[in-house]
Amino acid sequence: MIRYRNRLILWVAGYVICCMTSLQAFCDPLLEETVTNYTEMSYTDERVRLKGSISMEDGKHSENITVKADGEPTPFQLVKKETDKGETNRIRVWVAPTLKPGESRTYTVSRGGSPREKFGSPVRVEENEDEHTIVLDNGKVTLKLPAHATTADRGPILSINGRGKSRWETSALQSSFESHVVTDGPLFATATIRYEFDKKVGPNKETKAFSEITVTLPANRPYAIIEESHQMEREDAWTFVASDQWRPETGLMRRWWKAQFDEPDEAVESFPLKPGYTRLGKTVIHLQPRWTQSFDEGWFFGATDGSKLIGALPLRAGKWFWPHNNLISARVDDSGSYAAFRCPTFRGERFWLLTAGKEDIADRAMEIARRAGFAPLNKLHHKYVLAWKGVENETIEVRNFFGNNTNPTGGMRSLGDNAIEKAKSGETIKSRQRLYDVQAWLDPDWYGNYRNHWSPINPNFYTDFIKPAIGWAAMLREHPEFARFRERVEDAVRADVTHSITLPGGAGQECPGYVGYAMKSWREIAPVCREYLGFDPASWRRFRAGPSFLVRVSQPVKNGNARKFHPGGDTHPGQPDPVKYARTFGVDEEVGNLSTEELPGFGVVFRDEPGTPNETYLAFKSGPNRGHYHGDQLSFHYNARGSRLAVDHQVSYSPRAGQEHTHNRVSFSTEEFPYANMDGHERVIAFKPGKHVDMVIGQVESSRLRKVMKYPPEEWDNVEPVTRFKKNLIYRRTIVQIKHDDRPNYFVVRDQYWGPELTATYNLHVLGDRLERNGRNIDFSRLRLFVAKPDTFSFSSFPSTLDTWMDENHKSEETQGARISTKGETIEFITVLYPGEFIPSMKSLPNGVKLGNETITFTGGLPSGKNDRTHVRVERGGELLAELNGDEIDMNRSQGKVGLFVPDVGYPFGPIPRWLIKQRAHSEDF
């Protein structure tokens, strides 16, 4: 009996223990996590996703889940966790803390408990079968979205607060349509809409055209978050007509720059909803989420009737892909009560807010941008490391990233120089503010990301922009997660260098002067990176290739006794000797060993007897690197006998010569546009150096002409007016150098044009005070220009005027310009450039030219390029010296290995061509 009683006691005790263990397992938190507000801002009902997750089984019924904040029940929302490959078996938990500066909340997620509580004004979701709509409503904003295929012809936003409508602008037919609610609850609702079309698009026509729009409506906010991904044709878009069903009469706008080189004006501009307020006519402004120097871009636009407002606010640059193809255009018309947002869908991704509410949203736009774009608590919780023992009481100032402090040409340079100098001294810092600053400066949501194809505006701007973060990161090396910051700095510096210097050859994405400036900054940061950040930029191939390029493209001056930077683009006068400059980077180039060579991205440099008083030098700008270049596609800069002759004017901003006719190339015009630029991205399509003859062919294409002024300076950031053509303008230039031992080398140039009927003008600008024409001969004081073709042409001079051009010493530079013009749909010029006083006899041939006993003939010439006909043939005394055949022309010839540079403000060269995107959009890993 005693034995039985003891067994019973043991059994009961075991049962109780087992029950207690099960109860404990049921009561233990599924998830526990602390959310801290490290900023100086207060957050109210801010959406935050906890980092952990719970199982699908636990989250199957939200009524069986309780979430507590510091022990008190709090509203929450469960959302299925998804990856790039689809849904997983885990559930995300969202909460909505209200936190003052420095406050924290600890959240526990458990099974059981009371039903979740309501949260303020929960987001209502309703599907209206009669209207075929989905309605999202948070009490401040009511959105109607299309719900069924029968509404697929309408755009993705049917209305906001009962106003507006959207429509598609595409010739493609929709082949499918999907719309569904992803999640809804007390904190937010998200719906996704996807359109597919009956076209194949993309560089290789391999992608079915589509547009996918995700709309999120947070609780208690006066905006909806719009995230888009698409790939369609270049002209396709959807437009939201904000003024439909009401009559706004006033526009409110906040832009980056108000007028030419004025300081940014962050105040709200108010104006009538009519064309003409800006230079864009019916397009008032293009919206983009990042600082720029462009006069045509801003970061907020809204339409108001004096009380209510509907507006758009672009945010989070890191969530934009191919951003410059995705700028939202704010439109008006002559009625004075029309306002619309045109959203292009050519390619890429976009993130923006559609706002609705009171007119004061325009005044609060900066604060909305800070909270929803740059410092949402959810982002700080997941993406930033802000905890650091010893600085518990320090809160951070969230930077005003829409302010002028983003301008790398202003105070940013001083900030960066100061940070680098302090880091070099070995200083360390323990500061939550600097901890935040390093991460914020390197956050792609601020300045954009090279990988997303954001333009750096100028590559050296990005170098200046990241310098403060480099110095500060080096001083944070006592932080336990320093390795994380170090890696981000290295990634940023590698991105900068990878997208700035082209291999092989080292050609910069920018003109030589600005490459030199950027390299100076790299040289300054290299010791900090090497000493404290675990990598050495000076050991990278591109670091040495850049200064090598500056030597290889440098021009001889003073009879070969000195060298100067190539003067292309905005290369400021007064640059150092490039040979000596390169030595400060450990690069010692022997000029005498150089020869004619291709520098991919820049073009070709013809040379003979380099480094001597007899040096022949002609730099042919025939590469697509366009940063700080202007008007010089297929232009050349020519030095003979060690001195400058036919020049690419070194004008920089004094004044800036963006006009193509002010460079040594062919320009094109119409009666309406007597002076115009075709723009475009040029390339080398054939190159063949040799002992006696060097040859190159370059080409540039464009679909339009852009009107410009006759004389410099050009109008800054000028993109209009333009005239567009149904078929491309194709301009091809062939340059042949004939080399001699006993007399000067000379050049024969063939220029070809195909396209609509235009006037083509051959332009040549030569240093000197003399210009005389005698039939086909045009004599300058030190150069003869012989026009072998066309047989008839009109001629005019284009002399310089006082202070029009500036030399490298900032002194007036006197040039004489020759303009040779003809008209047609197919045009050919064949010219000879012969230096010196002794000129041999020259004779025009039906397809070339004869000089003494040398004959240069040209055949072939299809604009598509490749065929097996002879394109160039050079004979001396009846014997073949050299020839270039059509099968040596390669329209896909590599223009160098470098990350894609996207021209932005000040570079209106037109769309980046597909051949260039294919070569450079997928740069090497870094």
Blueprint (SSEs and pairs):
Blueprint: H1 2-27, E1 31-36, E2 48-55, E3 65-69, E4 72-73, E5 76-83, E6 86-95, E7 104-111, E8 124-128, E9 133-137, E10 142-146, E11 159-160, E12 165-169, E13 174-183, E14 188-201, E15 207-218, E16 223-231, E17 237-241, E18 250-255, E19 269-272, E20 283-287, E21 297-304, E22 308-314, E23 328-331, E24 340-344, E25 347-358, H2 365-374, H3 377-383, H4 411-424, H5 432-441, H6 444-447, H7 459-474, H8 482-498, H9 512-532, H10 541-552, E26 555-557, E27 562-564, H11 578-583, E28 597-599, E29 603-608, E30 616-621, E31 636-640, E32 643-646, E33 666-669, E34 676-677, E35 683-688, E36 693-707, E37 722-738, E38 746-767, E39 771-774, E40 777-780, E41 783-789, E42 794-797, E43 815-835, E44 842-845, E45 848-851, E46 854-858, E47 870-876, E48 879-885, H12 914-920
Helix pairs in contact: 4-7, 5-7, 7-8, 7-9, 9-10
Give a verbal description of the structure.
This protein is of the alpha+beta class. The protein is 16% helix and 36% strand. The protein contains twelve helices and 48 strands. The strands form eight sheets. Strands 12, 13, 14, 15, 16, 17, 18, 19, 20, 21, 22, 23, 24 and 25 form a 14-stranded mixed beta sheet that branches. Strands 33, 34, 35, 36, 37, 38, 39, 40, 41, 42 and 43 form an eleven-stranded antiparallel beta sheet that branches. The radius of gyration is 33 Å and the shape is globular.
